[in-house]
What we know:
The chain is 23% helix and 26% strand. By secondary structure, it is α+β, with helices and mostly antiparallel strands. The chain has 2 domains: 7-179, Gcn5-related N-acetyltransferase (GNAT) (Aminopeptidase, 3-Layer(aba) Sandwich); 184-379, Aminopeptidase (3-Layer(aba) Sandwich), CATH 3.40.630. Strand 4 (93-104), helix 3 and strand 5 (153-158) form a beta-alpha-beta unit. Helix 1 (14-28) packs across helix 2. The longest helix is centred in the middle third of the chain and has 18 residues, at 212-229. The protein starts with 6 loop residues before the first strand and ends in a 10-residue tail after the last strand. Bound molecules: coenzyme A (COA). Coenzyme A (COA) binds at residues 27, 103-105, 110-116, 158-161, 163-164, 167.
Amino acid sequence: MSDLASLSLFCATPEQVVESRRRTWPAWGGILNENQYYERYARLDQMEHADESKMITWVLAPRHDPTTIDFKCSCETYRRKGLVKYPGENEAREALYYGIAAVYVPPSNRGKKYGLHMMRLLHWVLAPHANLPQFPKEWGAPPEAQQSSGALFSILFTSIGEGFYRASGPGGKKDGGWEARSVISVTWEVPEIPIEKAEDPARWVWLHHEDMNEFWSKDVQFIKNSLATATEVGFMPHTKNPVAIVAPLPDGGVGSFHITRKLWGAEKAINMHQWGVKLLDDERSDCPTYATWSVDVQRPGSPSLVITRICAMEETFPALLAKLQEVARKSKIFDIEIWGLPRGLERVAVSTGGRHFEGKQGLLLPCIKWYGDGGTADIEWRFIEKFCLSC
Length: 391
Ligand SMILES: CC(C)(COP(=O)(O)OP(=O)(O)OC[C@H]1O[C@@H](n2cnc3c(N)ncnc32)[C@H](O)[C@@H]1OP(=O)(O)O)[C@@H](O)C(=O)NCCC(=O)NCCS
């Protein structure tokens, strides 16, 4: 049996979950000490986006000793609800997809193809086997799928470029894995004193914690309608004749958990009580105006207001930006980041002092793997924004 065939992918035991987190803290702990890092995980595990086994830690381990804590490497998956719209259909349908996160090989195990093999095997626990190529003989037997598998697609956000993930296909060829998509991201420095005259407060509603679930339900409806009409406004087409258009959805705790995750350990220092804002009286328009956010305190340097979801038109965007600056300034945050800016807003973004990055070269690159009919290259992924990150 080859070295790789002697290994398989297993759902982690509680001890392996602890070990996986112990390994990743030095790399991904940020400002959190070890205990804070574990406490944050414990809290997030119980939240709606992850509870009821929606979140699974996977380990690549020897077949003869699958529960060892000396496993080769680990990653996490999050079972999520998205939408798919096929050409010729009038409505988008619900679809199961997985978000992938925390792909980690400890330094002593790197460069031995363990990471690659774990990612190749992952398709076999996420997607229906009938939709995958033949399982390569040299890998031994396929890993045991969970009852919850049956994904139509899976997504991840890479900080190491596309190559490693594209090479991690399910069929043993050096291709066929996750493919990158382009995004526009923009950052702004927030002036300490407002440049624009204050927005009329009566036109806007702030969203607090308790408002978020209702807000996300409406946003889901908006995303559904947008897919049904297949409008291209605000999107950068990836392919001319897509086999399907897909979108992740922000409800079920998916859009809101970023508040806890990014702010953990600094809630008292950052005095923030509003987590979204929307323009009144335009909810019935084709393109309402709103944004949601979290505060990233984990990155080095000063905290940043990270926009998790944004919807606006060129005409309403400057006023929305003024509201974002207002809420940032109040909490002494002087940096705003929109990753996944809707197409058409770049001109305003730049004219308002935004630093604009575009394409597949960003620090964080969204990648998708499609398991339905057709190839991943023919899939249009809409609403690539920070709300759909798994971590
Ligand atoms: C990135 C990581 C998962 C790769 O795992 P690994 O087991 O060392 O990688 P493999 O031996 O399976 O390498 C497979 C291929 O990917 C390439 N690769 C490995 N690490 C890479 C990286 N950081 N960037 C780009 N390519 C990489 C290898 O060169 C190899 O290519 P080849 O087949 O042409 O030789 C591992 O280095 C790691 O955990 N790093 C720290 C955490 C991290 O960055 N995780 C990914 C977050 S998106």
